[in-house]
Structure formats: structure tokens, C-alpha cells
Amino acid sequence: MIREMTKYSFVIFHNDVPEFLKKLQELGVMDITRSSKPASAASKHLFSDISRYSASLKSLNQIKKEYAAAHSEKTAEVTDAETAVKKCESLIKQRRELKAQIAELNVSYKEALPWGDFSEDTIEKIKSLSLTPHFISLQKKKFDPSLKEKYPLQIISETQDKVYFVILTEPDQTIKGKFKEVQTPQRCASEIEGEIKQLKEQYKKATDDLISLTSATDSISEKIKSLSAEADLFLAKEGSTKKAEQTLEVFTGFAPTECTETITNALEDESVYYIKEEAKLEDNPPISLRNNRFTRMFAILTDMYGRPAYNEFDPTPYISVFFLLFFAMCMGDAGYGVLLIIIAMLLRKSKGTKEYAPLVMTLGIATVVVGFLLHTFFGIDISQASWVPEGAKKFMITGKIAGYDSQMVLALAIGVLHICIAMVVKAIYATKKNGFANSLGTWGWTLLIVGGVITGAIALAGVIDRSLTKTIVIIIGIISALGIFLLNNLHRNPLKNIGSGLWETYNTVTGLLGDVLSYIRLYALGLAGGMLGAAFNQLGGMVLGDSTGFSAMWIFFIIIVVFGHVLNLAMCCLGAFVHPLRLNFLEFFKNSGYEGSGKTYKPLTNK
Questions:
Q1: Which of 89, 97, 214, 295 could cross-link 64 (Cys pair, CB 3.0–4.6 Å)?
Q2: Strand locations in 437-588, DSSP E?
Q3: Could you give the CA distance from residue 97 to residue 100 in angstroms, rounded to a whole number?
Q4: What is the pLDDT of residues 383-434, one digit of tens each?
Q5: Cα(360)–Cα(346) distance, rounded to whole angstroms?
Q6: How many angstroms from the chain centroid is the CA of residue 333?
């Protein structure tokens, strides 16, 4: 649910701005409009420092990742973050320059390698004899051995397809034939190779120094936090509009309406004049979401796509229910659900991952329940297991419906329900934004599809007979057609409405078919995971054979089964995250008209 926001306009003497902003920072609920660019030399220096520190931290973390083994052995003595950053910048620049020099020398080395070792003195001695050396490379098939009889010729080297040779001529003599003469090599290959070796040693030394410098990442991180808090205050101040010859400043801020009393009480003793009013869509207020304990866990998924605009709906409650269901169906194994619950318990004990534990726990519990209904436990079909009570088997989804696997039919039915809910949500919020009269086209499609689905479901259940079903379908079709083809835009020519309705019909019919079929992935992924788990069980059973007592084969059996199920769990988790996310972000959002163009509520805070 989107929190209602109140817009505040503050007028304050510019000398009081720093203390005033600190007061707002302590409150921690006011989102102040910030400027996008620094406006003074001091601010440029501040943001330049943040950029430098962040770039150095990123480079050091990358070095730490690449050279993890060496990191634990080497540490540098660094007194403060600034010294570490300066040294890091110098070493990174040195490595970059060395890398460029090595790459350039490698090119020169490849060019010089076919010509062997020589010196400039050798070439000068040849020229002193009134002879001119011509360095030539030629395709082997074009090389004529008779050239040796015409000119003093020395083959320097040969490759699979080329010949490299030198011809000596008198200064005025020309060589007859089509030859591609190359430039006289300036240096020999061994000399270049030696220089490359020296540069590589320097590069390794700079790398070792960077590895030792990774011990300063914590101090750099703390410095970045300190600078960011300072920048946050500065940007809030620069976001003001200066009035009355720089003596007064006007700020615009937004805060949740529920915090109005707190803000009012805090500002009573402040020398500030302010106006508060209800935030409107045209104000583009930041979006703060109010969710309960369950849906709050899934708010991160909404933020991955984008916060809703102020006049949109919060999709988090819908995502929370359907993502949870889709994830469990894609996992499809109760045993893997148990492992997720264990992982969630372990996450609770770690500070860095503690916040994700409730979500993983919830996903694990859902996977256990759905996995039981789909009768799979670590790849075992428990609907056929003798150790499972017959009463429990009655709740399992087995058999076929109209010749199709019941689990596949269930996946498609859930997909239809998901899309129907999206269309109802779209119609409701279209009415709120545009009014009922301007939303008749949307309601027409909603009535046609959702009403048709409900009527079909009731008819299949045998509640109503065929003739009544036919009558209801005809009525729904006529009413829907009026909204789709004639009343989709009351301010437009009816003929244009018909044309627009036909085009929308084509897009909707073709799109809906693909949307519904997309939900087969819920069945396919669950089936694939179960079959792969069963395959690892079978492999382990083949290795174990008919062994009854303890033997070495039991060790191989355990290795195969454990490794196989850990690998399968990882792949299932990946698929169970990506594909449900896709079904919500594409199928649901498209059919619900959700855009997610709002900006996130970021209050000025010192936390």
C-alpha cells in the first residue's frame, strides 16, 4: 500500500540552514529535494573525494577477490584512509601504464621475432659496404628459390605459410618482382623480450603492493560513509531556492502524512516558516510503501522493477502471494524445502544475512507444503511410497485431467487466475485515475475475459446447464463488445473506436495465448527438478547395488546422492527465482497496466 505523503515548503534564513537540516536529519522522515550538481569549489572537492574513495575501494575489493590466497599473507602499514587511497591511485595508474607498455612491446616482439637476433651495428656494417638490406616477407607459395641465384639472399626464418628473408643490393640496384618489403626492424626480439620481462616484474611488484593495501578497505569504507553523510546534508541545502537577495531559502520536502504531528512538534521551536499541504501527482512525491510483516519481505522484488507512481497501486501484496506459490511450484520438492528451512536457520546466526532469513524460511515452508502436494521428496515419488499414510496421499495431486497431467493443468489454471486478477486490478485503478466513463474499454475486456473464465468454470462444475451458459456468454459478449468497440473513448469518432477496438482485439488475443502458455514453466521446472533428483538417486542405487552391510560402496553412494542433490538444489533455486519473477514482471504487470515509474522515498537521516 502506498503511504499518503504531505508536501512541505520551508522558508528559512540562510544562516540557519545547517542547524535546520541537522534537525531534519535527526527526525529521519523528511525527503528533501536534492540538487543534482555541486555548486561550489568545496562541494566539488567533497564529491571528488567520494568518487576517488569509491573507485579505490572497488579496485581493492576486486584485487582481494582475484588474489584471495595472497591477501591473507600480506598487509600494509597504512595510517589513514587518505594515505591508502593516494597509494592505491598511484599503484593503479602504474599498473595501467605498465600493462599498456607490455601490450605494445608484445606487438613489437611478434613483429621482430621472425627476423631473429641482430643489432644496429650489424645493419650499419652492411650499409658501410655500400650494400642495402631489404627485409621481405612472402607467402611460401609465391617464394621463388631462383632468387638466390640473382641476389645475395639469406632466409632468416619460415613459418607454416610465410618466408622471411633478406636481400642485399647495391644502393642503385632495384629488385625485380612483386615483393612486399617490410620496415627495417629497429630492435631484435631478445632485446624486446628482456624489456617485457622487466616490465612484468614491475607489474608484479605493483600488484603485490595493492594486495597488501587491501587491509585498508574497512577504513576506506568508513570514510566513504562519513563523506556521504556530509554530502547528503550539502545536497539538501543546495536543493533550496534562494530568495530575497540570498537572505532567505525555500526548501521543498515530503514526509508520510502519518508523521505530520511528529514533524509539527519538532518544528515548533525552530525559526522557520513552513506550509504543509496534501501531496499531489503533479508534485511527483517520493513513494513509501506500507506493508505488513509478510508482504514486507517481498518489497525488494517490487524495487527490482520500480516503485509505483503516486496514482498507481502497490503490486507487493500480489507479488508476495504469487511469487511464493510460483517459487514453491518451480522447486516442487518437499525435501528441498526442508533444506531451505535449515539454511534460513543458519542465516539467522549471521549478521550480514540475518535480514534475508525470514524470506528464505517462508519460501522453504511453502516448498515443503507444495512439494508434498506434488508428492516429491528428494526426488522420491512419495505417492507410491509405502511409508506414507494413505490418508496423506489423498491430498496429493496425481492422475490426469482430460488426458493431461493434472499438475500441468493446475499450472495453467493458476496462470489464468493470475492474469484475471491482473485485469481486474487494471480496471479498478483505471477507474480511479480516469473515471468509470473513460474506462469502459478496459472494463469491457475485463468482463469478457474474467466473466468468461468464471462462467466456464461454473459450467464445468455442473452448477449451470448448457443453455444457461450459452445465454450468459452471449450477454457478456454483447456488453463487452460495446465497451471494446464503441465506448473505448467517448471523445472520439465511433469509427475510430471500432478500428482501435479491432487492433486491440488482435493484440490481446495473440498476447493472452502466449501469456497463459508461459505458466507451463511452473509445471516443467518442478518436473525437471524432480526427475533430476530421481536420476541422482538412481545413480547412487546403481553404485550401491545389492549391498546390505557396510562397504566402500556406501561412501560412493553418499557422495553421489549428496553432491547430486546439492547441485540440483542450486539449479532449482536459480530457476525458481528467475521464472516466477518473470511471470510477475511480464505477464502480471503487462495485464495490470503497472508501470513502476515512481521514485523511492529517501528521507534525510543520519542512520
A1: 214
A2: none
A3: 5
A4: 888 888 888 888 888 888 888 889 999 999 999 999 999 999 999 998 988 8
A5: 11
A6: 27
* Ranges of the chain whose pLDDT falls below 70: 34-40, 43, 68-79, 119, 178, 235, 238-239, 242-247, 269-271, 546-550, 607
Q: How many domains does the chain have?
A: 2
Angstrom distance (rounded) from CA 500 to CA 494: 10
Which residues are bridge partners to 120 per DSSP?
none
Is the four-CA dihedral 76, 78, 81, 84 of positive or negative sign? negative
Q: How many residues does the chain have?
A: 607
Contacts of residue 310, defined as CB under 8 A and 6 or more positions apart, other chains included, come to: 2, 5, 279, 280, 281, 284, 285, 287, 598
Cell numbers representing residue 585 in the block: 514482471
Domain contains 14: no
Note if the pTM is more than 0.85: no
- Report if residue 339 sits inside a domain: no
| Cβ contact 447:476 at 8 Å | yes
Residue 406 near residue 367 (C-beta atoms within 8 A): no
β-pairing verdict for 376-377 and 380-381: antiparallel
Give the per-residue pLDDT at 225.
Answer: 84
Q: pLDDT value at position 243?
A: 67
Q: How far apart are CA 43 and CA 231, in angstroms?
A: 8
The pLDDT of residue 577 is 93
Whether the Cβ atoms of residue 59 and residue 92 lie closer than 8 Å to each other: yes
Q: Report which secondary-structure segment, H or E, holds 114.
A: none
Q: How far apart are CA 489 and CA 485, in angstroms?
A: 9
Confidence at residue 486, expressed as pLDDT on a 0 to 100 scale: 86
Distance from chain centroid for Cα 93: 30
Nearest to 599 by CA among 299, 286, 311: 286
Q: Which domain holds residue 417?
A: 408-518
Q: Which of 459, 487, 518 is a domain's end point?
A: 518
The answer to the question of residue 284 being in a domain is: no
Please tell me the predicted confidence (pLDDT) of residue 132: 83
Alpha carbons 229 and 604: distance in angstroms, whole number: 9
Considering only CA atoms, which of 177, 239, 205 is closest in space to residue 34?
239
